[in-house]
Amino acid sequence: MKKNILITGSNGQLGSEIRSVSAYYQKTYNFIFTDVAELDITNIEHLRRFLQDTNIEFVVNCAAYTAVDRAEDDVQMCYKINRDAVKNLAECSALHNINIIHISTDYVFDGKTYLPYTEEMTVSPASVYGKSKVEGEIILQKKCPNAVIIRTSWLYSSYGNNFVKTMLKLGKERESLNVIVDQTGTPTYAADLADVIMQIIDSKEFIGGIYHFSNEGAISWYDFAKAIHRIAKTTCKINPIETKDYPARAPRPHYSVLNKSKLKQTYKIEIPYWEDSLQACISKLQNQR
Questions:
Q1: Which of 80, 166, 223, 287 has the fewest other C-beta atoms within 10 Å?
Q2: Closest by CA position to 35, among listed 3, 69, 2, 60
Q3: Residues 18-36, buried b or exposed e (16+ Cβ, 10 A)?
Q4: For position 202, which CATH number holds?
Q5: Is residue 73 part of a domain?
């Protein structure tokens, strides 16, 4: 008998990539893709009724408030989605004995260290967005100790709005672009994260805890932009600038490289190199034309 997997926030980048990869798992799982129009997870009564009517065994929570700068002013809505909705999912999942995979972020750290962040390192968010995600993690762990929380960074894909697609669009419109050189992290191709999520679900044992996932390697946004334009063969010139020259409403981590050893060891997962995944994404985008 097939197991039912509920995907929340399924119209976003990650949800869309899970929809794509689901084709390879149709013999084993039924996928129920929902976004706010089908399932408002901030409404616990709506969520309870939905779960009572469906025999869900796994929830993958891709729903999130991710407008980092807007969150500094839109605090209530940010917490409603990133904390309160996670609380609703946690309570309902605990009640129905559902395994939950929740997506979190590198913004739980302030980025002031220069060592790749492990899951055991103390969180210290500097933005409203980061603080809301930390509170969601804490509530989920308390109510669902067996939950899997995956922190990721610099997410991009062929879907939605993201840095890669913005660079490609602006690269055609402008002769040069200024990109920040003093923030270091690792891009994450959402298709790779979708694969990892399905490997965890399909594994013999669902082992809860916090895990880190991004592609392998460490670069600046400037390096990332240079690679995007090199692979796409655009002539746009990329100029390096410092964070202080590009003021933003919310502070960004200056260093947010994630250590992925725990995930690799626990689930025996191989992680692709960032540039190989970027090549795959750009090839996909170019083939869509």
A1: 287
A2: 60
A3: bbbbbeebeeebbbbbbbe
A4: 3.40.50.720
A5: yes
Measure the CA–CA gap between 269 and 264, rounded to whole angstroms. Answer: 5
Give 75-128 pLDDT, tens digit per residue.
999 999 999 999 999 999 999 999 999 999 999 999 999 899 999 999 999 999
Beta strands in the chain (DSSP E): 3-8, 29-33, 56-61, 99-105, 148-152, 155-156, 176-180, 184-185, 188-189, 209-212, 219-220, 237-241
The DSSP bridge partners found for residue 58 are 5, 99
Task: Kindly report, residue by residue over 245-277, the tens digit of the pLDDT.
Answer: 988 999 999 999 999 999 999 999 999 999 999
Residue type, 62: C
| DSSP β-bridge partners for residue 152 | 105
Give the total number of structural domains in the chain.
1
Higher pLDDT: 289 or 87? It is 87
Alpha-helical segments (H) within 174-273: 190-201, 221-232, 261-267
Sheet holding 3-8, edge to edge: 29-33, 3-8, 56-61, 99-105, 148-152, 209-212
**Token match 């084709």: residue?**
23
pLDDT single digits (tens) 146-179 = 999 999 999 999 999 999 999 999 999 999 999 9
Report the alpha-carbon distance of residue 73 to residue 69 in Å, rounded: 8
Is the pLDDT at 1 greater than 90? The verdict is: no
Catalytically active residues are 129
